[in-house]
Amino acid sequence: MSKHLVSLKLFAGLAVVGGLLLAGPTLLALGSASGQPAVMAQDQSQGQEKAQTFTGKIAKSTEGELVLQEGKDPNNKTTYKLDDQEKAKQYVGKNVKVTGTLDAATNTIHVAAIEEGTT
Fold it and tell me: Whole-model pTM?
């Protein structure tokens, strides 16, 4: 390959890289109406889960953590860990409605709100 051809390919490659570097911030700035870059808006919407409502009784687990026990049958209860022990503390032994998102991998409710109620 001649030196001239190598120089031409190198110049073309640098021109492409330079163009991407110059256009990159502009492409990121093209986003949603909220002013967030489009790339960030997509990442955030994929990571968000919808809040759910869980009903049951706040109890202490065998490890001493506060949990939500769902179900009235003592032999068939579903138990969820609660990530906000402080919010749950005032409802120990009470029937409650917990609003939050469930992390199924750890069986933990990320608590948004707890209110006393009947189940």
Answer: 0.57
Q: By C-alpha distance, which of 54, 45, 50 is closest to 101? A: 50
Domains of the chain, by residue range, sit at 3-47, 52-116
- The residue type of 91 is Y
DSSP, residue by residue, 15-79: HHHHHHHHHHHHHHH-B-TTS-BHHHHHHHHHH----EEEEEEEEE-TTS-EEEEE-S-TTS-EE
C-alpha 80/C-alpha 103 separation (Å) is 10
**How does pLDDT run along the chain (119 residues), one tens digit per residue?**
555 545 556 555 555 555 555 555 544 444 444 444 444 444 444 456 789 999 999 999 999 999 999 987 777 789 999 999 999 999 999 999 999 999 999 999 999 999 998 65
**Distance in angstroms (rounded) separating the CA atoms of residues 90 and 66:** 11
Nearest partner of 88 among 113, 69, 106, 62, judged by Cα: 113
